[in-house]
């Protein structure tokens, strides 16, 4: 079973390979990172590690037994007890429950290790796989958004265990 690991400097080569191998797959559901991401990868990786060290973000990789990166799960924009969740799983590792498991583990870390009380996430309406992962991991839809010109849904996960209330937004039922 792949292991969730906090991002480290030595992950750089495997992480770059993961991003290159899955670029087209990811671009089908999320905005492409662009060529600059790949040409400036080493500088970007160092900057991410510095952000992580400062506590502004928490980056994780899902590593296979051979060190191959099969996914990423990140908490960014940490402030006021909250953070934004983002994740991506390699095409060859998709539909095996790895995303749900990794997101659930990061939610636990967010509450127990990072002291966060809530997480937010967004996905497009045409990405039912991501919607299912978020729902299985305890996120609830709270509203609508637009992501790179596409309609999307905003999700929130309360890490404190407080009860939620249900509202209707644009004819859809959401819980907050």
Q: Oligomeric status of the shown chains?
A: single chain
In CATH, what is the homologous superfamily? Gcn5-related N-acetyltransferase (GNAT)
Query: Helical percent range?
Result: 25-40%
- Tell me what portion of residues adopts beta-strand conformation: 25-35%
Supply the CATH class: Alpha Beta
Number of helices: 6
- The CATH topology name reads Aminopeptidase
Order of helices and strands: EHHHHEEEHEHEEEE
* Main sheet properties: 7 strands, mixed
* Class from helix and strand fractions: alpha+beta
Global Rg: 16 Å
- Beta-strand segment tally: 9
Distance between the termini: 34 Å
Strand order of the largest sheet: 1-2-3-4-5-7-6
Residue ranges: pLDDT <50 for 5 or more in a row?
Answer: 163-176
Shape estimate: globular
The CATH architecture would be 3-Layer(aba) Sandwich
How many domains make up the 3D coordinates? Answer: 1
Averaged pLDDT? 89
GO molecular function, one term: protein-N-terminal-alanine acetyltransferase activity
Domain N-acetyltransferase: 2-160
Family: Belongs to the acetyltransferase family. RimJ subfamily.
Keywords: Acyltransferase, Transferase
């Amino acid at each position: 079973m792949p292991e969730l690991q906090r991002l480290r400097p030595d992950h750089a080569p495997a992480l770059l390979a993961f991003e290159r191998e899955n670029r087209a797959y990811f671009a089908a559901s999320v905005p492409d990172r662009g060529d600059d991401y790949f040409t400036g990868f080493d500088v970007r990786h160092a900057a991410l590690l510095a952000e992580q060290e400062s506590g502004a973000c928490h980056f994780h990789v899902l590593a296979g037994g051979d060190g191959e990166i099969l996914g990423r799960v990140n908490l960014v924009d940490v402030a006021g007890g909250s953070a934004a969740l983002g994740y991506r799983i390699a095409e060859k590792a998709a539909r095996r429950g790895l995303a749900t498991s990794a997101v659930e583990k990061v939610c636990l870390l967010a509450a127990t290790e990072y002291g966060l009380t809530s997480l937010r996430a967004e996905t497009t309406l045409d990405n039912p796989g991501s919607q299912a992962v978020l729902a299985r991991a305890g996120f609830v839809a709270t509203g609508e958004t637009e992501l790179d010109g596409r309609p999307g849904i905003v999700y929130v996960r309360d890490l404190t265990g407080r009860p939620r209330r249900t509202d209707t937004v644009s004819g859809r039922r959401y819980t907050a």
